[in-house]
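Aim 2 progress. For DUF2786 domain-containing protein, the working sequence is reproduced below.
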Amino acid sequence: MTESDPQLERIRKLLAKAEDPAVTEAEAEAYNKKAAELVARYGIDQAMLAAAGASADEIGTLKIPMNDPYSRDKASLLTSVAYPLRCRTLLHRFGQKVDSVTVFGYRSDLGRVELLFTSLLLQASTQLTRVRPDGFFPGESLAAYRRTWLHGFARAVHERLTLAEQEAVRTAPPGERSAELVVRDRSQLVQHAFDAEYGSLRSAAPRRLSGSGYLDGHDAGTRANLDPAALTRRRKALR
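Predicted structure tokens for this construct:
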């Protein structure tokens, strides 16, 4: 995903429009939705090129460190980004803390996961410092509220990315092989490779979270910027 990629350049322009204070909330959401669609289309394009032998795209791994506070919830956000983009995750835990997450998938998809997760984590962390429970549940701790807020945020991101990926497959131009078959085969190969490497490990038991922040976090996740180039733009602005 290079700086000169015309698809990423189009995403930048869409998000610049969405960030314009002169546009309405509905217009901004439309621009954000279109950007998410282009992110998904980029993944389909790379998959089709690899299937046709026009580019090299191999299965690999990417290890991303997690930091407290809320390392388990940040790891959940990473998984919520990775799975719709046809990757799998392995959490490296020490007690209740997640030290890091290994992401397993095709390299073009790993690049999308890393950029999207880094940008979304920054967005979520910025908002998390401001959110507070509304007092409807007396005695609710700030930590409990924020954990469920992050859970809601991650769920909304997962839903948006899943829909965008499905639509990208449905609308992909016809080729020697259909995008649906290419994506299905790639997903199966990733799962088989993941199982061969980590299949003996047990899945963690589902978490039980107490807190009232889910709906607020989900609402924030529906508005989150899904531009994979957002982090690059921020870094340039800080130089």
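The first strand starts at residue 59 and ends at 65. This observation will guide construct design in the next reporting period.
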